[in-house]
Recover the amino acids of this structure.
């Protein structure tokens, strides 16, 4: 039997003593509430009427016909309230925190999508909210900082280390140890110490459940391939969750290839050169140096710019159940533009990694085969990055005028 909180040799809960009572409480309350009919019905009511679920599953007809291979379908998580899958988990955990009497929520964020989702859930559920965000990400994803503040959250820029997600996680954990009784740490991906990976998967598995129901009821069969981008792993594990035991369905996770996995400027843990380690409370693959220190990562998408990968995904990588690959920043921008121009879909740069891989493999597959891509978020937040990449001159002129006026 698996040791609790472990997936094979991955996972566990490597936490400071001061936080142990919180983890014990969290484990007990999560086990209780996930079976509690009134909690689940309140959560589902919010998913339906506040988040806007189910999100659509769309046949990308134009793109499929242009590529001339497998049919590509898109699960449009970007149409959920706040524009990404992150709200499924943020709302679930915020509701759990409220039920167990916590007054204040703290969270880390990378791209800002989890921060926005958490701030939004806290506004809805009337909870105080503080979000830690690397200073670099504050700059890269400034529109999301603005929206978090509009939801009433306090955004705290983290100036240590590489000033990205890993430093934001460390800062949030430090803050939690200061007031563990009243605060709840709302973790945004399927990472961290147990029971977070299990809990995040539980709340994100709604994506997989809907996809299975929508696809199979419409087409009367299973899809051949599912593709999702992988940062910490919450959208992918949620999306894959209902097909993990159906071996005939290929599951592919796409990591951030950045400037190429040979360049050292990427965030490819499995498809690149991650090594086994215990960092930030869990055992998994991390990009690390010979002394076990986390290496700086790079990606055009802030949401995939993280050195660790969720323990359940690491396990499925080790058994071969989930295949891993990467897409480079350049391929991501090309995929972004292709889907915008041909399908009218503005995908988040994170999700565009999955789209880039779909483009690569669709052409080698038969028209009778089907790929479903989880478009984990919408790309309006990436306006500043995409505009620089594709329309540098006009965009910079526009920004200059905006600053002057
Ligand atoms: C739109 C979107 N997709 C994917 C991710 C990656 O996170 P995860 O791997 O937990 O789904 C993020 C993270 O911020 C995101 O904003």
């Amino acid at each position: 039997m698996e040791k609790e909180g472990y997936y094979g040799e991955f996972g566990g809960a490597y936490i400071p003593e001061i936080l142990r009572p919180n983890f014990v409480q969290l484990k007990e309350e999560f086990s209780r509430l996930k079976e509690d009919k009134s909690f689940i019905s309140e959560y589902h009511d919010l998913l339906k009427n506040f988040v806007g679920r189910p999100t659509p599953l769309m046949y990308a007809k134009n793109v499929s016909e242009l590529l001339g291979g497998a049919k590509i379908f898109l699960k449009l998580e970007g149409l959920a309230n706040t524009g990404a899958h992150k709200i499924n988990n943020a709302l679930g955990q915020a509701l759990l925190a409220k039920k167990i009497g916590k007054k204040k929520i703290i969270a880390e964020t990378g791209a800002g999508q989890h921060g926005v989702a958490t701030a939004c859930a806290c506004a809805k559920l009337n909870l105080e909210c503080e979000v830690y965000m690397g200073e670099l990400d504050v700059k890269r994803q400034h529109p999301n900082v603005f929206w978090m503040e509009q939801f009433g959250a306090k955004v705290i820029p983290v100036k240590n280390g590489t000033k990205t997600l890993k430093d934001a996680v460390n800062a949030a954990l430090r803050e939690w140890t200061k007031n563990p009784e009243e605060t709840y740490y709302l973790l945004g991906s399927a990472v961290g110490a147990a029971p977070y990976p299990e809990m995040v998967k539980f709340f994100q598995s709604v994506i997989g459940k809907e996809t299975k129901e929508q696809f199979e009821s419409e087409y009367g069969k299973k899809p051949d391939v599912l593709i999702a981008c992988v940062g910490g792993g919450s959208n992918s594990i949620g999306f894959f969750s209902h097909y993990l035991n159906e071996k005939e369905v290929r599951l592919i996770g796409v990591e951030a290839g950045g400037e190429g996995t040979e360049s050292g400027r990427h965030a490819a843990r499995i498809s690149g050169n991650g090594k086994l380690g215990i960092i930030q409370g869990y055992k998994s693959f991390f990009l690390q140096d010979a002394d076990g220190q986390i290496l700086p990562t790079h990606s055009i998408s802030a949401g995939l710019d993280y050195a660790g990968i969720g323990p359940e995904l690491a396990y499925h990588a080790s058994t071969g159940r989930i295949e891993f690959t990467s897409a480079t920043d350049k391929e991501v921008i090309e995929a972004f533009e292709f889907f915008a121009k041909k399908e009218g879909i503005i995908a988040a740069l994170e999700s565009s990694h999955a789209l880039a891989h779909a483009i690569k493999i669709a052409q080698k597959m038969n028209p009778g085969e089907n790929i479903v891509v989880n478009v984990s978020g919408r790309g309006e937040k990436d306006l500043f990055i995409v505009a620089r990449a594709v329309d540098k001159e006009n965009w910079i002129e526009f920004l200059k005028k905006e600053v002057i006026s």
Notes: The CA atoms of residues 247 and 321 lie 8 Å apart.
